[in-house]
C-alpha cells in the first residue's frame, strides 16, 4: 500500500490543539534565577488540504516560526497532535524531509562559498534524488527561475533576489509535496517579488504543491492565497478569506490621485474620504474589501485625473485593527502577554 493511501487529502497538514512551551531562565538578582514558561503556541488547531496555498500571518513574536519549526520536525510540540502527509514530524523527521521543502527568507540553505550549482549537486546526493529526476527538475527550475547565468557564481556574490530564487530552487529539487515559505519576498525589489510570486503560483497550479506562506507583505497573500490564518500571542485568531480579514479589521486602502491642478478635496460621497491634500495630490481612504475600479472611474469622469496609485494596508495594521475591533477582553495583547508567561519555581534557586 502506498503511503499516500492513508493520508487524508483534505487534512494533508493536520494540527490539533498543538502547544509549544519554552522554559526560559532569567537572572533576577546576583544569585537568583527565575524560570519563566513562555507559551509560544497555545492550543492551535487547523487543517490544510493537499494543493492549498495558505497564508500564515501575525505580528512579531506571534508564534509563526515556532509553528513552522514544529511542522518540519525541528521542534517537538509540548502537547497536541501534528501530522504532515500522514507523518509525525518530530518522530520521523528524516522521512518527512523527503516530502517537504523549506525556504527561510532571512537565512540561506545554500553553501555560502560554493557556486550555486555545487549546492544543488550536494542536495542531489543528500536527498538521494534519482539522476534523471534531478536533471529534469534542475533544468525546469533553472529555466523558470532564470538561474542559468548564476549557476557558476558563488552564493555570497548573489544579490538578495538572486539568492532567494536560488534557495527556492534548492527547496524544490526533490519534488516536495509541501513547501513552507518563511518571508520569501523580504527585502526584494518589486520586479523580483513579482517573479517569485509568479513562480509560486505556477508551482501550485501545475504541480499541486501545498504551500504554507509566512509573510509581512499583504500583497504576497493577496496575490497567492485564497485563505489566510492569523496567529497572535500563540493563538489562532482568524482562519478564512483575506476579504473577511479586511472586513473584520475594517481596514482601508489608500488611493493616491494626482490631479491636473490644486483643487479642493474631491467629493465621491460614501465611497471614500480624503485624508490628506498636498498641492495637486490627494489621498483617499476606502474600504480594503471594496474594489478600487468604480472609485477610479468616478474620479476620472468628474476630475482632471493625471495619475494614480493604490496603497495597501500593511499586515500589522490590519491585524491590530481586527484584534482591537473585536472588543474581546482576552484578546487585548497586554492581558494575553501576562497569561502567556508564567513564573515557575526554578530548581537550584538560592
Ligand atoms: N527557543 C526559544 N526559547 C525561548 N523562547 C522562544 C524560543 N523560540 C521562540 N520563543 C518565543 O516564542 C514566542 C514566539 O516566537 P516565534 O519566533 O514563533 O514568533 P514569530 O511569529 O515567528 O515572530 P517573527 O515574525 O518576529 O519572526 C516569542 O515570544 C519568542 O520569544
UniProtKB/TrEMBL annotation:
PROSITE patterns the UniProt entry points to: ABC_TRANSPORTER_2 (PS50893)
Location (main, coarse): membrane
UniProt keyword list: Antibiotic resistance, ATP-binding, Nucleotide-binding, Transport
Positions of region (Disordered): 327-350
Membrane topology of this protein: Peripheral membrane protein
One GO MF term attached to the UniProt entry: ATP binding
Keyword Lipid biosynthesis: no
Domain ABC transporter: residue ranges: 19-258
Annotated localization: Cell membrane
Pfam families in the cross-refs: ABC_tran (PF00005)
InterPro entries to which the protein is assigned, alphabetical: AAA+_ATPase, ABC_transporter-like_ATP-bd, ABC_transporter_ATP-binding, P-loop_NTPase
Official protein name in the record: ABC-2 type transport system ATP-binding protein
Organism: Streptomyces rishiriensis
Organism ancestry: Bacteria, Bacillati, Actinomycetota, Actinomycetes, Kitasatosporales
Amino acid at each position: 500500500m502506498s503511503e499516500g493511501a492513508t493520508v487524508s487529502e483534505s487534512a494533508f497538514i493536520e494540527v490539533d490543539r498543538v502547544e509549544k512551551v519554552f522554559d526560559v531562565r532569567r537572572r533576577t538578582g546576583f544569585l537568583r534565577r527565575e524560570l519563566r514558561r513562555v507559551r509560544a503556541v497555545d492550543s492551535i488547531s487547523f487543517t490544510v488540504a493537499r494543493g492549498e496555498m495558505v497564508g500564515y500571518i501575525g505580528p512579531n513574536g506571534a508564534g509563526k516560526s515556532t509553528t513552522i519549526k514544529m511542522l518540519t520536525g525541528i521542534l517537538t510540540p509540548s502537547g497536541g497532535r501534528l501530522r504532515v502527509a500522514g507523518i509525525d514530524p518530530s518522530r520521523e523527521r528524516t522521512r518527512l524531509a523527503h516530502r517537504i521543502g523549506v525556504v527561510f527568507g532571512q537565512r540561506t540553505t545554500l553553501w555560502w562559498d560554493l557556486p550555486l550549482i555545487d549546492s544543488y549537486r550536494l542536495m542531489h546526493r543528500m536527498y538521494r534524488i534519482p539522476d534523471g529526476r534531478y536533471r529534469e527538475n534542475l533544468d525546469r527550475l533553472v529555466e523558470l527561475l532564470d538561474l542559468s547565468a548564476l549557476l557558476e557564481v558563488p552564493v555570497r556574490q548573489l544579490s538578495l533576489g538572486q539568492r532567494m530564487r536560488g534557495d527556492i530552487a534548492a527547496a524544490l529539487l526533490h519534488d516536495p509535496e509541501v513547501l513552507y515559505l518563511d518571508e520569501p519576498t523580504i527585502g526584494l525589489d518589486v520586479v523580483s517579488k513579482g517573479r517569485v510570486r509568479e513562480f509560486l503560483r505556477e508551482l501550485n497550479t501545475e504541480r499541486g504543491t501545498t504551500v504554507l506562506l509566512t509573510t509581512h507583505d499583504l500583497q504576497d497573500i493577496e496575490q497567492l492565497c485564497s485563505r489566510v490564518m492569523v496567529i497572535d500571542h500563540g493563538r489562532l485568531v482568524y482562519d478564512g478569506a483575506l476579504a473577511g480579514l479586511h472586513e473584520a479589521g475594517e481596514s482601508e486602502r489608500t488611493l493616491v490621485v494626482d490631479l491636473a491642478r490644486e483643487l479642493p478635496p474631491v467629493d465621491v460621497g460614501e465611497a471614500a474620504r480624503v485624508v490628506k491634500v498636498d498641492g495637486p495630490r490627494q489621498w483617499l481612504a476606502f474600504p480594503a474589501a471594496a474594489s478600487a475600479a468604480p472609485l477610479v472611474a468616478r474620479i476620472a469622469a468628474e476630475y482632471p485625473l493625471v495619475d494614480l496609485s493604490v496603497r495597501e494596508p500593511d499586515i500589522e495594521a490590519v491585524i491590530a485593527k481586527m484584534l482591537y475591533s473585536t472588543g474581546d477582553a482576552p484578546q487585548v495583547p497586554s492581558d494575553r502577554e501576562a497569561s502567556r508567561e508564567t513564573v515557575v519555581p526554578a530548581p537550584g534557586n538560592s
